[in-house]
Specification:
Blueprint lengths: L6 H29 L5 H22 L4 H29 L18 H9 L12 E2 L2 E2 H23 L7
Antiparallel strand pairs: 1-2
Helix pairs in contact: 1-2, 2-3, 3-5
């Protein structure tokens, strides 16, 4: 039994990663545009790992790859999802007031001139990161994102540990 990820296995796995990432980003945009849920800055940051994992998945599906490159792709996707777990866990902590977010504190208005004030007025206002706009059974969107990221990270870790050695394969 081979312990390397074959080209066809890797393409199927990276297709799954691409679809899972595209699904998460689509759900975020539907919530934002379709249901009027304004994303805070942490919500926007939490989209980045899905974009990275999705792009890596797309590239690994479309481009010719070697076993070493497939292994690198697995590690990149795993890293993206682990970052996603961390960001969403941090966001849940902010929502629950376990800690504050330096990105969401707002802070004092730093404008010193009329031009600075006018520029600040014209920027879109983001909700505070602890402003829970939607939840289901007490679980917020950040909480659901934590679970989803954790599942994807676990799945990718399992594949990476089993097949990501990059020894040999076609």
């Amino acid at each position: 039994m081979s312990t390397s990820l074959t080209l066809s296995q890797s393409r199927r796995f990276f297709l799954l990663i691409f679809l899972a990432s595209a699904g998460a980003l689509t759900a975020a945009l539907v919530g934002e545009k379709g249901f009027g849920l304004a994303p805070c800055i942490l919500c926007l940051y939490e989209r980045i790992p899905y974009a990275v994992a999705g792009l890596v998945g797309l590239a690994m599906m479309a481009l010719p790859t070697s076993p070493r490159l497939r292994s690198l792709g697995l590690w990149l996707v795993l890293t993206a999802f682990v970052v996603g777990v961390g960001l969403s866990a941090f966001h849940v902590g902010v929502e629950q007031h376990w800690w504050e977010s330096p990105a969401c504190t707002g802070g004092p208005l730093g404008a010193v001139s009329v031009d600075d004030l006018m520029a600040a007025i014209q920027k879109p206002v983001r909700p505070a990161c602890d402003d829970i706009q939607w939840s289901f059974m007490g679980i917020t969107l950040a909480g659901f994102n934590f679970v989803y990221s954790l599942v994807l990270a676990g799945l990718t870790l399992g594949v990476t540990l089993r097949f990501g050695k990059g020894r040999s394969a076609t």
